[in-house]
Write a structure and sequence with these properties.
This protein is α+β, with helices and mostly antiparallel strands. The protein has one domain. It has eight helices and 15 strands.
Length: about 250
C-alpha cells in the first residue's frame, strides 16, 4: 500500500510538471502584442486560421465560377475603407490573397473565408493590413477597429463571388441564422444581407441582432455558435467557439 506521504509527493510532482507545461505554452500573437505590431503573415493568419475565422473549401460551381462576367476578388479594389467609400487615408484591406483568383473552373476547389466581422480582432487584422499594404493612418485604423458594432456581422469572401450576387435577403431569410450548439432553441434570425456587388470590399455581409430583449444574444454558456446560410446555390455551415473569442479579457463578438 502506498503511504500518504508518497501519494502527496507524486501529486506535487505531477502538479509542478503540469504547471511548467502551462508556463512554457506560447500565447497567441494577438495576445502577446498590440495589433499595430502584427506583421502581414500574422494578420492574414488571424483572418483565416483563428477563433474568429473559418476557411472552407467548396467547388467553383457553387460560387459561380465560369459564369459570364465573373465577379472575382482580383477584379475588385485591393482595399476598401471602413465606411465603404475609397480613400488612401482610411484604406482597409479585404484580407484575401489577391491575384490568386484567375483560372478557377466549376470543378476546382476554391477557398471560402467566413469571418466574425463584428469582432474587434477581425477588424484589427483588416486595419493592420491596411497599414502594411496601403499606408493607412494609424488613427484611422484604430477608429475602424474599435468602433462598436450594433449587430453581429458575419462576412464571407472568396476569389469568386457570383453566387452571392445572385441571391437576396429574401432568398436567405428562411434558412440563414446563428444558433447555439448547446441550446438549439436559441436561433437568431438573419436581419440584413448585403451582396458583394454592393460593398467595396467584395464581401457578402450577414447581419444578426446582437441583443434579444435587451440582453446579449449569446454568452459563455452557449460555448459554441453555428453560422448557417442557405440560399439558392449557397449552402454554408460552420461554427465558432466562444471561449476562445476573447479580447482584453472580454467576449469579442
Amino acid at each position: 500500500m502506498v503511504s500518504q506521504s508518497r501519494k502527496q509527493t507524486v501529486w506535487w510532482v505531477g502538479f509542478l510538471f503540469f504547471g511548467s507545461v502551462l508556463t512554457v505554452f506560447p500565447k497567441d500573437f494577438w495576445e502577446e502584442k498590440p495589433f499595430t505590431q502584427w506583421n502581414e503573415e500574422e494578420s492574414m493568419k488571424l483572418l483565416s486560421e483563428s477563433p474568429w475565422a473559418r476557411t472552407l473549401t467548396v467547388l467553383g460551381s457553387i460560387l459561380g465560377a465560369g459564369q459570364a462576367g465573373n465577379n472575382r476578388i482580383s477584379d475588385l479594389p485591393n482595399v476598401a475603407t471602413a465606411s465603404g467609400g475609397r480613400s488612401s487615408g482610411t484604406a482597409m484591406s479585404t484580407g484575401t490573397a489577391m491575384g490568386q483568383a484567375g483560372g478557377f473552373g466549376p470543378s476546382d476547389p476554391v477557398p471560402l473565408y467566413v469571418r466574425w466581422y463584428s469582432s474587434v480582432r477581425i477588424r484589427q487584422a483588416l486595419g493592420r493590413l491596411g497599414q502594411i499594404q496601403s499606408n493607412a493612418a494609424e488613427s484611422e485604423v484604430k477608429k475602424f477597429a474599435e468602433q462598436p458594432m450594433e449587430e453581429y456581422v458575419i462576412a464571407v469572401i472568396a476569389p469568386v463571388m457570383n453566387s452571392f450576387n445572385d441571391v437576396t435577403l429574401e432568398d436567405f431569410k428562411q434558412k440563414t441564422f446563428l444558433t447555439s450548439k448547446k441550446d438549439k432553441s436559441k436561433k437568431i434570425p438573419l436581419k440584413s444581407y448585403v451582396a458583394p456587388k454592393d460593398r467595396n470590399d467584395g464581401t457578402a455581409a450577414f447581419s444578426f441582432p446582437r441583443l434579444i430583449e435587451g440582453s446579449p444574444a449569446f454568452g459563455p454558456e452557449d460555448q459554441e455558435v453555428e453560422f448557417v446560410a442557405q440560399g439558392r446555390k449557397v449552402n454554408i455551415k460552420t461554427s465558432f467557439k466562444l471561449a476562445k473569442m476573447v479580447a482584453d479579457g472580454k467576449p469579442d463578438l
